[in-house]
Write a structure and sequence with these properties.
The complex is a heterodimer of chains A (313) and B (417). Helices cover 28% and strands 16% of the residues of chain A. Chain A has 313 residues and is of the alpha+beta class. Chain B has 417 residues and is mainly α. The chains are: A alpha+beta (313), B mainly alpha (417).
Amino acid sequence: MTTTETPQKPSLPIVENFTRRAAVKGAFATLGAGAFVAAISPLRQAARNSSAAEFMQTHYSELSPEQKADVIARLEAEAKEKYDADVTIADDRPIPGTKFVYAINLSVCNGNGKCVEACHKENNHDRDTNQSYIRVIEMPKGTMDMEKGSTTYTGAVPKDDKFYLPVQCQQCDEPPCVDVCPVKATWKEEDGIVVVDYNWCIGCRYCEAACPYHARRFNWKKPEVPAKEVNPDQSYLSNRIRPVGVVEKCTYCLHRTRRGKLPACLEACPTGARVFGNILDPKSNIRWILENKRVYILKEELGTKPAFFYYFD
Amino acid sequence: MSSIITPSESESHVTSYPKFIGRSLWLATEGSFAFYAWMTMLTALFLVGANAWANQVAGGMIGTNMTDQVSWGLYIANFTFMVGLAAGGVMMVIPAYLYHDRKMHDVVIIGELLAIAAIVMCLLFVVADLGRPDRFWHMLPIIGKFNWPISMLTWDVIVLNGYLLLNLHICGYLLYMRFLGRKPNPTWYIPFVMLSIVWAISIHTVTAFLYCGLGGRPFWNTALLAPRFLASAFVSGPAFIIVSMVLIKRLTGVGGLDQPIATLTKIIRVTILVNLLMVASELFTEFYTGGSHVSAAKYLFFGLHGKTALVPWTWTAIGLNVTAALLFLWPGLLRFRWRPLLVTACVMAFVGAWIEKGMGLIIPGFVPSTLHEIVEYVPSQLEWKVTVGIWAFGLMVFTIAIKTALPTLKHPAEHSR
Ligand code: SF4
Ligand code: SF4
């Protein structure tokens, strides 16, 4: 490079033999671009799996009723095409005057794990990874310190010196998972249920890091569910089969509970340890329990204000 | 045929600025055989990374070794470290502009160019970590849904991009003036330089808040996290710049680098000790107090319930950091014939900080999990490929940027007064 200009002159040197160099550089640039296109060619396969309509879809809260109907029709068609399953996807909205809460009687729960299994089936979880929104921790009697517990216990239950602590989304009233989401893909609905728009989530997993109850699950791969095992009663914000690369969570089975039914985990529980209901209804069972039992919440010190309670008889 | 650009005073910036960019890029791709070999190698590595990433997008993130328990891994670890590197570049700006160090003035642009390359890498690491990169536009203000000011991640997006623009402006302006053969007008860059000092601190502080704001993760939930971030950034940034300057001097014969190298060495002498002091006081609180903090720290240093994946990382980092600190404290390190030793010390400090801010900070936040499950994490081959690819790309950006600035570095006299 020439380095002797005076300051007043342009400081960049002259390039000799411009055309030849341009040709060589052009060749290299073309080669590089070609190699780059080849390197990222697997993206084409990914692109085939999602439509332009899906890409352009706006946030759930911004969809007009007509757009919603279109989206749902598209999702149902996708379920048919990708899973060979005939499903109906509803858009269940919160019932005014309802705030759902859940309670578990720890004196009764015996750790049999039927709730875990029911959740897996009800919510169309990936069969391979055996996913579920519920984790049951086997704890030594006399402590609330989860560090002493185990989520991978085996053998006959219940064991004499243990008690069992099922944990799932606590539908916090101050949900850290909602606060951290950079794109508002997750929010709390009027009936207290925290939901995710699976078609808006970008999969950053910040909410997973923020949740103190390990309640969120990420779709590391496309969920696999055999056609005859697909639960066809679905809702947009709950158990429809999730796309790959997004986060999901327990919704208190809103596709059931907003239609007056009980959560699948409660129905499956053989011991009757689970109680579910509308806390705003003064005559409800759950209200009676919260008023008359010794009730605990998990990790109270974090200020998440769970809508999920534990009690002992 | 030869090409020559003679920008005249009367020519409009609209035409001459693109010409400047074009010329700079053209020149930046001129070089010796070694230069081409270097760039070819980086391109090859970058392509490997791009291919791995494309496979990750096509097959889902199951190709990584992350899990619902350890939901962030190597990518976010590198992201965190790169934010530090970007912020650390400011350690050249401070002596140059706050303490009017003439010699620093001439080379301060190296730090700013490093910041640009580092931020580009940060953004790439974030994209690599997204489950749905096709929905990236959801993050953009106005057309997407920007959860501002509640989410710390949106703050981070703002400060990182702001810092990128700031540094692009400063570097672009200084180099462009040089191209035009004019003296840079201080009103067009000094205020931005001052702003960049505050901004550099903000990028790393906000990134620390990203983690320490999570109440459910006791390992991160410490007020010392942001200052610790900054202390280690002010080690890794200058260390990288020292090595770059040693190389630039060797390869291009640019002069006047010895004094900046000495200044940065003196800076590291202090920051590396501050960093160690903070690590020590954190460890004291963790182990002496016990409580909920301690299991993650125990896992990090000694393993927990027989699970020890992070222990080798941790002790390597400590070994590197302490050795580097001892080397930096030795006055002889500044002597010219000990240059290789200085470079070694810088590399040690750099790698030490990389482990400490990456594997040593992000992963133990997840182990044990919030339900106290111990799920270990070791990055998969795919993750390493993507990471290497992004590093290669960043080095490409940095190399090109430095080459663009070389004429200015060779003739510093007429600018930045
Ligand atoms: S339990 Fe976790 S996922 Fe559920 S609302 Fe609370 S923070 Fe969110
Ligand atoms: S993973 Fe999805 S829901 Fe969770 S914070 Fe990121 S964008 Fe929001």
